[in-house]
Design goal:
Elements: E1 3-7, E2 10-13, E3 18-25, E4 33-39, E5 46-51, E6 57-59, E7 67-72, E8 77-82, E9 91-98, E10 110-111, E11 115-120
Parallel strand pairs: 2-11
Antiparallel strand pairs: 1-3, 3-8, 4-5, 4-9, 5-6, 7-8, 9-10, 9-11
Length: 121
């Protein structure tokens, strides 16, 4: 069993920055792909970024060049540095851990409770 605890959400003005963190507990966490998805009201959950145990990263098209995902395997923690935030980045951000490609429909995955990010214009 894997448990994920997120922190770092909040309210920020457009153009600002936020950093989210997610700490995982449980066995074999270091072998899992970890990442962030987000879901805005009325929209489907979408991939923000993912990172493998070896450090390979992928990003959703809407955040490329603005967001950076990183991972500290010694602490089973991932981070999402979000820069140049836009109002359309407003959503609940969910940390998740599982297997490539970390699809939201993969029932083998684990999810955090979500953290709200609100970007004001």
């Amino acid at each position: 069993q894997v448990q994920l605890v997120e922190s770092g959400g909040g309210l920020v003005q457009a153009g600002g920055s936020l950093t989210l963190s997610c700490t995982a507990s449980g066995s074999l966490v270091s072998n899992l792909v970890m990442g962030w998805h987000r879901q805005a009201p009325g929209k489907q959950r979408e991939l923000v970024a993912r990172i493998t145990s070896g450090g390979s990263t992928n990003y959703g098209d809407s955040v490329k060049g603005r967001f950076t995902i990183s991972r500290d395997n010694t602490k089973n923690t991932i981070f999402l540095q979000m820069n140049s935030l836009k109002p359309e980045d407003t959503a609940v951000y969910y940390c998740n851990a599982g297997y490539w490609p970390l699809s939201p429909s993969d029932r083998r995955g684990y999810w955090g409770q979500g953290t709200q990010v609100t970007v004001s214009s």
